[in-house]
Amino acid sequence: MARMFLLRTFGILFALVLVLQALDLLSETGRILERPGNGQPEVLRYVSLRAPEIIARFLPFSVLLGTILTLITMNQNSEVIALKAAGMSAHQVLAPLIIASLGVAAVSFTFNERIVARASSTLEQWKRVDYGPLPIDRGDRTNVWVRDGDDLIEVARLTGRGDAARLSGITIYDREGGALRATITAQNGVRAGDGWRIGPAERFDVASGGVTPLGEIVVARGVRPDQFTLSTVNAEGLTFTALREAIQDLSDAGRPTKALEGALWHKLSGPLSSVLMPLLGAVAAFGIARSGKLFVRAVIGMALGFAYFVADNFALAMGNLGAYPPFLAAWAPFLLFFLLGEAVLIRTEE
């Protein structure tokens, strides 16, 4: 059963990737070849970067269809009836598929961490330059905001990395209890011990309206250089560990992280969705084939599986909007459809 299930799953996955990659190329090939100097090598490079994303996204669909196809075949050949006549329960009949899907989930997680993350990161950077030569990232950032306690620090431009980072166009908003007390502005800033030396600095007092020259001063003690160099985080382009570290850095910098936390949890719940598919597609395994309702059972199994993907995407979208907590956005559809699949299986077969 497991061998038949895996062969059908990866066969369907291969066909899906082949068709979807061809359709994707129809829309992207023109943009790639618009760039002077691009040709067939660049198209093949795009395929090598895009195919892992398609595989990762449609592997759970393939597991669902592979499950239904396997169980329909067994039902038509009366193999399921023979297994149940031998005293096996519905859960015991499905056990080989569930164990095999656990292996698929492990492979999916490893594939996402080792290949998909790197491919997604490179492809996103390549798209930003309209499929031209990738520039060298020298660490320059513009319009950077960092939170230091109640205070906010705005930097117009940052160059360099680590202790060699240099700040330009600095504005510090000195706040107390949410109310703005003063602003400190300076042209330049460099790393000084655990803080930043800025100057020539001026302080504008909100209450009095007066401006006071401060010369060179040290501010933002405890603010690390990497808090300034953080840019927009692409959750798909980072591994689980790297994304967790980026979320921690963004949190330390006082930036919102709810959407990224949901993406972090989904890096676990996404691959595990393969384990749900045998349970949701199990309705196709049972019932008498000659009763004429086998096709209806297969449609019900597909409907349950696709309903899960719709609910999963909806929950992630609500999590990105802040309507759902990150953990709930990633795991609620998984737990809901696990209970739903168990309820259908127990009510109809156990």
Automatic annotation (TrEMBL):
The UniProt record lists the keyword Transmembrane: yes
Example of a GO cellular component annotation carried by this entry: ATP-binding cassette (ABC) transporter complex
Superkingdom of origin: Bacteria
Keyword tags: Cell membrane, Membrane, Transmembrane, Transmembrane helix
GO BP: lipopolysaccharide transport; transmembrane transport
Location in or out of the cell: Cell membrane
Entry membrane topology: Multi-pass membrane protein
Keyword Cell wall biogenesis/degradation belongs to the record: no
Transmembrane segments: 54-72, 93-111, 294-311, 323-346
Pfam families attached to this UniProt entry: LptF_LptG
Classification via InterPro entries: LptG, LptG/LptF_permease
Name of protein: LPS export ABC transporter permease LptG
GN (gene name): lptG
